Automatic annotation (TrEMBL):
Transmembrane segments: none annotated. The keyword Heme does not apply. Pathway: Cofactor biosynthesis; ubiquinone biosynthesis. Keywords: Ubiquinone biosynthesis. This is Ubiquinone biosynthesis accessory factor UbiT. Pfam families: SCP2. One of its GO terms (biological process) is ubiquinone biosynthetic process. Required for O(2)-independent ubiquinone (coenzyme Q) biosynthesis. Likely functions as an accessory factor. HAMAP family: UbiT. InterPro entries: SCP2_sterol-bd_dom, SCP2_sterol-bd_dom_sf, UbiT.
Length: 161
């Protein structure tokens, strides 16, 4: 006897959406666990996993020279509370993961970064509401925020593969 899953469309219902919202509100943040895992993974392995998808995601913008102003610069994206973060740089026409602090840091909750990545809310609102904060070289952070806001990109699992 074969077991089949319901179609994806059937999985989107108001009851399921409400249940997931309750779970998100009451489950503890995964950030501390992610931080422990992050500290145990060597940087070369992180680079291997993250750099190719990032460069595929922004390939057209990189090819068109949109990232050229960021050559040799570093920016850190960090989850509130010093939990996992990533420092990105741009060298020789490629986005790269680097170890250490960035010239600017954009810090916020996982939910704020998810909202930003999915483009569900205007990035300026996230900053004005203090859900995302820029520290350090704010001009660099704002330039990157404006670049990402101007690009036509789609963050999906399929796009990253």
């Amino acid at each position: 006897m074969a077991f089949s899953l319901p179609p994806i469309a059937a999985l989107h219902s108001p009851l399921l959406d409400q249940s997931l919202a309750v779970i998100r509100d009451y489950l503890p943040s995964p950030a501390p666990v992610l931080g422990m895992v992050d500290r145990k993974i060597p940087m070369p392995f992180k680079q291997l996993l993250a750099e190719a998808p990032l460069n595929r995601l922004f390939a057209q913008a990189i090819e068109e020279g949109e990232f050229d102003d960021f050559e040799g610069r570093t920016l850190r994206l960090e989850v509130n509370g010093g939990h996992p973060g990533v420092t990105l740089g741009f060298w020789a026409g490629r986005l790269r993961l680097v170890d250490g602090p960035g010239e600017a840091t954009i810090r916020g909750s996982l939910a704020a970064f998810k909202t930003l990545a999915e483009r569900k809310q205007d990035p300026d609102q996230l900053f004005f509401q203090r859900r995302l904060v820029i520290e350090g070289d704010t001009e660099l952070g704002l330039a990157l925020k404006n670049l990402l806001d101007s690009l036509d990109w789609n963050l999906s699992f399929r796009a990253l593969l």
